[in-house]
Amino acid sequence: NPMTVRNGTQEFQKRWGMRPNEDYWRISNKQSLLKNMSEEEASQFAAFDEAKADSLFGAATSAEADSIDAAEKAKKDSLANDPHEREYYLKQIPFTEEQMEESNRLLGDALYNAGIQEQEQLENFPLAEKTMIRFLNDFPEHEGTDNVFYHLFLLYGRLEDMEGAEEYKGYLLEDYPDAKLSFLLGNPNYEMIAREGKHVEDSIYAEAYAAYQTEQYDKVEENYQFSTDNFPEGKHRARMMFIRAMSSLYGGERDTFMVTLRDVVQKFPKEEVTEIAQAIVKGLDEGRALMDDRYDASSIWSRRTRGEAGDSTETVPTLKDDRYCNFNFVLAYPTGSLDENILIFEMAHYNFTNFMARNFDIEIQADEGLSMMIIKGFQAYDEVHAYAQRLFADDHMRTRLEGIRTLLISDENLQMIGKEFSFDDYKEFYDEHFAPLDIPEDLKIDVPEGLEILDPDELDKREEEEKQQEMEEEDDDDFPFGF
Length: 483
Known about the structure:
Elements: H1 2-16, H2 30-35, H3 39-46, H4 50-53, H5 55-80, H6 86-90, H7 97-120, H8 125-138, H9 145-158, H10 162-175, H11 180-186, H12 190-213, H13 217-230, H14 237-250, H15 254-267, H16 272-285, E1 327-334, H17 340-354, E2 361-367, E3 370-378, H18 381-393, H19 395-400, E4 405-410, H20 411-414, H21 423-433, H22 456-475
Antiparallel strand pairs: 1-3, 1-4, 2-3
Helix pairs in contact: 7-8, 7-9, 8-9, 9-10, 12-13, 12-14, 13-14, 14-15, 15-16
């Protein structure tokens, strides 16, 4: 910086005057000084190192050296952290045994994940095969080897290379006999389960429940064993175990009942039947006796929390048959019986694509094993009825909503469901008061919100009031002929 240099020069001249750039510049008259010295003193003076004697100069030199070292170190660090520089990769070369183990772990994880993604997501089977074979050759002891065997079995089966598929199936069964995947492939019904597993599991559970209701406990046990052998982690596993436990109880096998019931509580804490199982286990642990009432999966639809025996002085609530008020479309299902996130997406997508001018809100409520998805924003029964008709006319949505109970219910009546009235109670009320109503076939739901929907009687009354008001205004006119 020229200005800094100039200021420094001026300051130096102000303090020291004009001095030449030479050794011993602080001594203005060196010759006269040397004349007054002996030869020994003069030689010592000539050998005098001013730089070493000058503490300021030494400090400056040391600070400059330190700053240079720091700059060089910072440069090396920046290069070592820049993936575009050679030093970045040299720094990562493992030298110690611990570094080699960590390096092998990272590389093994990368090959494992890459191979599965290449097969399942990219469907690049040659590349997936190459990656997984490399994984097995380079890291045979790495975690996940059994899963790689299984994926190679699937890959060769997809390529119709049955010899290769059987080879890796054999590796899996031989090296990992206790793995879940070995259990799956070792099942003689594997192909049937892979193709029709969902429908078979549903059928087996339905048969077991029907057998339980008709007290065919041997049939329940038979279906339970088939489910255990073929669907140990199926979606009906908790319910199947619970049915088996109750069958054991009524069949006289109390020990089996208790063991199975505790397994349900421990292994499936979030399932609907777990709440019932937990209540039974807790009661038995407290010394309570078992009741004779039989478990019925349909009981959630007839459940109400407030019994009929109440204070006689209280006002008995009743369901309202008001047609022209805010209504809701409700989807009800046992908690945990379906993926709520998928259902929310399907309903939101349907509403957005079919009713762009309306803003239907979606709310989830859950209580004691029963969940409700409530679609709000209907201004009358006619609207929610038209919405339901249009929804179930859609083939995709009708399939998605199979097995889910629906309600068309007003805000006021919804507050009483599960409390004063059960779902079955409301169905009887609906069939009597709402189902017979005539609904306009050309009713349009996709209109902007804020339009008022009036009862026809209210509309006639409002028209009469408007006519009466016009007549009164004409009577008050002092100049009826426009003068």
